[in-house]
Write a structure and sequence with these properties.
Chain A is mainly β. Helices cover 0% and strands 47% of the residues of chain A. Chain A has one domain: Immunoglobulin-like, CATH 2.60.40. Classes of the chains: A mainly beta, B alpha/beta. At the A-B interface, loops of A face α4, α10, α11 and α12 of B.
Chain lengths: 96, 459
């Protein structure tokens, strides 16, 4: 039997200064959870988000930063790469 | 003195007075062998004296690469160490893969065995034989699954079967050597594991084998039970052990269909959403949660097969072959390791919070390891000369590493451990005295549960 993933994961995130904090993930598929960080509209980094509920990106270059949580979605063995990352939270932004 | 289940029997050293009196008393009471065996089948070891009663076996079908998970070699050449980095754990000096951060926080609860090996062929089936039963099958003669052994030793303590396998039986793995590694073998069909045969992660999860067919009322079920009992009475005039086995199997089947607690045990909707999220909303996570519910309700031994095949599914069998075995380190990072990390950590924590971990051994096993050197396509192939599995719960001490592999994870460098010792450790971890408790082997002659010594450092 192929694997079943129930529901659609969702989490709320918020900012405290430059630190981003997440709540618990509902309908958690338990695949890789990561922060996706964009700078001036371009993705510059991802960071693991499972072990801790908060994260602060070390980047200090001036500009607009945006952070969102994403999770790996397994789409089946025949799918390209077996799946893809999907965003599961609201986005937060700050400026340096 | 030895025991078959809870029956004391004579050793080669002679019949003791106590066992003579017990067997004699049974004879005086008119019990014949089938009666005696039936009593043992329905009864159990004296549970009041058993502190550890249960086992949850997580069987990682396909075999994780030990160098990518629980035995990283950061100083090895790049084509050996792979892309993952080690992280520290709660247990000083023990590092594991960076993609197992939740497990790292619980390292005081489990102990890694990093020097496992077997010398049989490098195929999944031979690993199933060794790690599910503790035996290689000489001439193809099967030995019982560990869950069947425990079912035989402890007996059934609720309407639920003593040994259940979730979510399904291991099927296609490229060879058929392990086909009978998930049976009761010579213990008889009464001790075969019950296969769930359904995915508990599905929102409409039901167990087809338990739900009466449409139109089949309780009256009809009970009528069938009565008719069957009458047929059994006739059949039991021909006395042999297989009659007893079938008798028990029938009783078990009817108990499963009719007992209200059965359906309750399998109903994951009774769990809070937060608990289901904690385990992970996937097949393996839901199976782990279900295993806790089953243990709580009297199942002795739950096996979870993390995957029932290695073909055309993202699983541990990381050949990266570009075909039906195209699993890669990316699958490990994105999917397999996080999924295992979350479910395993939730299971240990949940059992611990409920006071169940001290009476439940949690054994994480696999058929073998994977080649130290990464193959030409970025994968690793089958490798039984060295690998890592781990044990937690029951009487087993956590926070340790047993044995060590060499600098490239190619062979046990220190303290080689073969599979029978792992099974012996599980049984002892469940409180079974391996010098005292025996079971009926082929031809019903009494045999030890396993011909190996437990790992003493784990107790």
């Amino acid at each position: 039997m192929d694997q079943v993933f129930e529901g659609t994961p969702k989490a709320d995130i918020r900012l405290e200064g430059r630190k981003v904090i997440r709540g618990e993930v509902s309908n958690d598929w338990a695949s890789r959870l990561q922060w996706k960080i964009s700078h001036n509209g371009k993705v510059i980094a991802t960071a693991p988000a499972r072990a801790d509920l908060d994260y602060e990106h070390p980047g200090t270059e001036a500009g607009a930063y945006e952070v969102v949580l994403e999770m790996w979605k397994y789409e089946g063995f025949k799918a390209k790469d077996h799946g893809k990352f999907v965003e599961i939270s609201n986005k937060v932004a700050y400026t340096v | 003195m030895l025991h078959i289940g809870n029956a004391q029997i004579p050793t080669c050293g002679g019949l003791t007075r106590r066992s003579f009196l017990q067997v004699g008393a049974a004879g005086l009471a008119g019990l014949n062998l089938p009666d005696f065996l039936s009593m043992k089948a329905a009864g159990a070891v004296d549970e009041s004296k058993a502190e550890v009663k249960n086992c949850i076996m997580l069987f990682l079908v396909g075999s994780p690469g030990h160098l990518d998970t629980w035995d990283l070699k950061p100083n090895a050449p790049a084509d050996v160490r792979g892309p993952f980095k080690p992280i520290k754990t709660k247990a000083p000096g023990i590092d594991i893969c960076e993609h197992l951060p939740l497990m790292a926080k619980l390292a005081d609860k489990y102990s890694l065995i990093r020097s496992l090996f077997h010398t049989s062929s490098a195929v999944h089936g031979s690993g199933h034989q060794w790690m599910m039963t503790g035996h290689g099958f000489n001439n193809g003669d099967p030995h019982p699954h560990a869950g069947s052994v425990i079912a035989r030793v402890f007996g059934q303590k609720s309407a639920l079967p003593p040994s259940i396998i979730l979510p399904g039986k291991v099927g296609a793995v490229g060879d058929n050597l392990g086909e009978r590694a998930q049976t009761a073998a010579y213990l008889g069909s009464a001790y075969n594991p019950f296969f769930l045969g359904a995915d508990p992660a599905k929102s409409d999860f039901k167990i087809a084998n338990l739900s009466p067919q449409a139109g089949q009322t309780e009256f009809r079920i009970n009528s069938r039970r009565k008719l069957l009992a009458e047929l059994d009475a006739i059949q039991q005039q021909v006395e042999n052990a297989s009659t007893v086995a079938h008798d028990t199997a029938y009783q078990r089947a009817f108990s499963l269909i009719t007992a209200p607690e059965t359906k309750k045990a399998f109903d994951l909707s009774e769990e809070k959403d937060s608990v289901r999220d904690r385990y992970g909303r996937n097949t393996f996570g839901a199976s782990c949660l279900l295993s806790r519910r089953l243990i709580e309700r009297g199942v002795r031994f739950v096996t979870i097969n993390h995957f029932d095949t290695v073909f055309s599914i993202a699983c541990w069998d990381m050949h990266a072959d570009g075909g039906s075995l195209n699993n890669t380190v990316q699958d490990y990072e994105r999917h397999l390791l996080p999924q295992f990390d979350q479910a395993y950590s939730a299971l240990l924590t949940d059992l611990d919070e409920r006071g169940l971990l001290k009476e439940t051994v949690v054994a994480t096993l696999s058929e073998m390891g994977r080649t130290p050197k990464i193959n030409g396509k970025g994968g690793r192939d089958h490798y039984p000369p060295c690998w890592t599995n781990f044990l937690a719960g029951g009487n087993i001490k956590g926070g340790q590493v047993i044995g060590a592999s060499d600098k490239n994870g190619a062979v046990p460098h220190d303290y080689p451990i073969d599979p029978p010792r792992v099974l012996a450790t599980i049984y002892q971890g469940m409180g079974v005295d391996l010098d005292q408790v025996m079971m009926p082997g082929p031809g019903s002659r009494p045999i030890r549960l396993i011909d190996a010594e437990p790992i003493p450092e784990l107790f």
